[in-house]
């Protein structure tokens, strides 16, 4: 399982953002990491990682336990400060930004720990997520501003419709079945109207039925909202089914990337990922 780095706001003081150089970038490239390195003490969790994600792509990050997948995601969401390297989103560096500023630029992460307020209704959760995305830190006073309420309600409605939870809008979030809670988490991430949705093990802990429903939901949302996805997933069946492209990490380094059919037969990947067993 992932090391829970979400709770570790390892934002260090070194600001390396001014030392970065810019190279020509294509408008199709939404996200690009350049020489991205994260060290924890002597351990290099991501080691000179250079990846590109184009608009509209569904990319999966795979690799054995400890390969650096969650670290990479947490660097992109600014929960972790890189030791070296840059992260470009829409052709500008996001290193140096606070996590909420990255959300405002268009990067959302679903399956964040404790993204749901359990005692509030499903609708209120969606409303708060929308407000928080707009305003950075959520302020309960915002809910009392009448002018913005219509917008907030409409956006929450659209969000719940997108994830199939409109009928459960008045239920208390804590009472939702497990699979619907995961839907609400996706909804909360979508309320920020992201261009890029990052998902770290969206089907972890799910039954086969819930897993299927979540995969369907991801496909639906992708079609409906024309989103770009980066997914960390251990279930290879899901990865090979839904990815346009797969990036393979091992010991912090990218060891392969390509279409599912190329990755499936790649001997380096088989060796690293499953100790030589066929994928
Ligand atoms: N906050 C941290 N402090 C120290 N070491 C960490 C921290 N977070 C991750 N690591 C280490 O960095 C390496 C990469 O971890 P990471 O969680 O990114 O791997 P992963 O590919 O997501 O693994 P898994 O598939 O098991 O979730 C591991 O050796 C891990 O122990």
TrEMBL record:
GO cellular component: plasma membrane
GO MF term list: ATP binding; ATP hydrolysis activity
Gene3D superfamilies according to UniProt: P-loop containing nucleotide triphosphate hydrolases
One Pfam short name: ABC_tran
Coiled coil, from the record: none
Gene Ontology terms describing biological process: amino acid transport
Chain ranges of the ABC transporter domain: 31-276
Protein name: Probable branched-chain amino acid transport ATP-binding protein LivG
Gene (name only): livG1
């Amino acid at each position: 399982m992932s090391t829970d780095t979400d709770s570790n706001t390892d934002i260090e003081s070194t600001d390396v953002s001014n030392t970065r150089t810019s190279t020509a970038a294509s408008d199709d490239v939404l996200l690009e990491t350049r020489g991205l390195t994260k060290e924890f003490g002597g351990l290099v969790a991501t080691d000179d990682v250079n990846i590109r994600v184009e608009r509209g792509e569904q990319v999966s990050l795979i690799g054995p336990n400890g390969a650096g997948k969650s670290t990479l995601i947490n660097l992109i969401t600014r929960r972790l400060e890189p030791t070296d390297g840059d992260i470009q989103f829409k052709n500008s560096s996001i290193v140096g930004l606070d996590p909420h500023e990255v959300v405002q630029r268009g990067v959302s992460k679903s399956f964040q720990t404790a993204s749901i307020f359990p005692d509030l209704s499903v609708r209120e959760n969606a409303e708060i997520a929308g407000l928080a995305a707009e305003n950075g830190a959520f302020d309960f006073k915002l809910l009392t501003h009448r002018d913005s309420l219509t917008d907030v309600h409409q956006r929450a409605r659209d969000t719940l419709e997108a994830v199939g939870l409109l009928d459960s809008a008045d239920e208390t979030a804590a009472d939702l079945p497990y699979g619907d809670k995961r839907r609400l988490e996706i909804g909360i991430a979508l309320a920020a109207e992201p261009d890029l949705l990052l998902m770290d093990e969206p089907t972890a802990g799910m039954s086969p039925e819930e897993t299927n429903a979540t995969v369907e939901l991801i496909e639906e949302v992708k079609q409906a909202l024309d989103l770009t996805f980066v997914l960390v997933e251990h279930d290879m069946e899901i990865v090979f089914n839904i990815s346009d492209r797969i990036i393979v990490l091992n010991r912090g380094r990218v060891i392969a990337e390509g279409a599912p059919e190329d990755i499936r037969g790649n001997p380096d990947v088989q060796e690293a990922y499953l100790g030589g067993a066929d994928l």
